[in-house]
């Protein structure tokens, strides 16, 4: 079960999409003073080095955040403005890499903790023994820098752990559900955990990342999430980014023999109760992102959104 290590994928195009959507959502929710419960059910290691073996071996970050970092620098040098959501993300990256060389990549826990206000609380879950240990060390460093008992790491199952956290007394929550989908059962667990969360806190904001791959469960997941949102009378948003990596004949042959079909080409985020500003922000950001990250002619993006039925 534990072969997945996010360090090989940190900063790839899927992280870029997910982290931009997460940050834009968080900023909108923090425009109000009320305390927020932030939950990351599948937190990973928290912080990543892009100049070390795992990132270099996969090369995914170079084609993701590396390409974006370069495009942002070129645009800034030319005096061109970046889409607001991209600029915010780039500012977070710059804060971690103040000398201008992109070496450190913030996973979702790092992005969330950097934005934490005194009235907010951050709950992280990570089950992998090694990544849990790495995250534990990082959380201790965050706490030492700004003593905030409001950051809590549980080296436990995030699908199970979310239940006990909802609803928070403030009734304001942003929950990121970002499994590795290493197990096919993750798709069903995601739908079940969102259904349960909506019963406990219908007004919570739930951000789910999913891969766009040729697997029935993966196609079905956004449809199931949309049906859940509609059933509960909630607004929803679905954004996808496909960087159009050309098919690799070796990967195709491996897939035909039942092996994984190579690197991920496309992914999506599904948001239940998105901020009303999010669709507009992503429609501005995604074409810009795609221009920076595209790998082939099949590259595409989409943002769909729906309001609760009256
Ligand atoms: N959210 C992170 C980010 O954006 O930086 C990336 C998370 S990574 C895609 C998924 C993580 O979930 C892996 O580190 C994996 O070990 C962990 N994991 C898998 N199943 C889990 C579970 N049931 N509960 C908590 N963590 C789990």
UniProtKB/TrEMBL annotation:
S-adenosyl-L-methionine binds at residues 19, 42, 108, 126, 178. Keywords: Methyltransferase, RNA-binding, rRNA processing, S-adenosyl-L-methionine, Transferase. One of its GO terms (biological process) is rRNA base methylation. The keyword RNA-binding applies. The record marks 4 as: Interaction with substrate rRNA. The keyword Translocase does not apply. Its EC number is 2.1.1.266. It comes from the Bacteria. InterPro entries: RlmJ, SAM-dependent_MTases_sf. It catalyses: adenosine(2030) in 23S rRNA + S-adenosyl-L-methionine = N(6)-methyladenosine(2030) in 23S rRNA + S-adenosyl-L-homocysteine + H(+). Belongs to the RlmJ family. PANTHER family: RIBOSOMAL RNA LARGE SUBUNIT METHYLTRANSFERASE J. Specifically methylates the adenine in position 2030 of 23S rRNA. Monomer. This is Ribosomal RNA large subunit methyltransferase J. The lineage of its organism: Bacteria, Pseudomonadati, Pseudomonadota, Betaproteobacteria, Burkholderiales.
């Amino acid at each position: 079960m534990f072969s997945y290590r996010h360090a090989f994928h940190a900063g790839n195009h899927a992280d870029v999409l997910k982290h931009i959507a997460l940050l834009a959502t968080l900023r909108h929710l923090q425009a109000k003073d009320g305390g927020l419960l932030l939950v990351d059910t599948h937190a990973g290691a928290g912080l990543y080095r892009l100049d070390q073996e795992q990132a270099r071996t996969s090369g995914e970050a170079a084609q993701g955040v590396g390409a974006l970092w370069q495009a942002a620098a070129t645009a800034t040098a030319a005096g061109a403005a970046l889409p607001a959501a991209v600029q915010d993300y780039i500012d977070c990256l710059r804060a971690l890499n103040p000398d201008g060389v992109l070496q450190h990549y913030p996973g979702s826990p790092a992005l969330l903790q950097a934005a934490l206000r005194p009235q907010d609380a951050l709950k992280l879950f990570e089950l992998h023994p090694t990544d849990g240990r790495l995250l534990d060390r990082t959380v201790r460093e965050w706490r030492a820098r700004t003593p905030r008992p409001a950051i809590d790491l549980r080296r436990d199952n995030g699908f199970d752990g979310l239940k006990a956290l909802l609803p928070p007394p403030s009734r304001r929550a942003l929950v990121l559900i970002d499994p590795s989908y290493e197990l096919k059962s993750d798709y069903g667990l995601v739908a079940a955990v969102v259904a349960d969360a909506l019963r406990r806190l219908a007004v919570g904001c739930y951000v789910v990342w999913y891969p766009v791959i040729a697997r029935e469960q993966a196609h079905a997941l956004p449809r199931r999430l949309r049906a859940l949102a509609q059933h509960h009378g909630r607004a929803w948003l679905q954004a996808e980014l496909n960087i159009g990596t050309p098919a690799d004949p070796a990967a195709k042959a491996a897939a035909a023999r039942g092996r994984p079909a190579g690197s991920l080409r496309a992914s999506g985020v599904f948001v239940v109760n998105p901020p009303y500003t999010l669709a507009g922000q992503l429609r501005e950001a995604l074409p810009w992102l795609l221009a920076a990250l595209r790998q082939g002619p099949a590259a595409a993006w989409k943002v769909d959104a729906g309001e609760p039925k009256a």
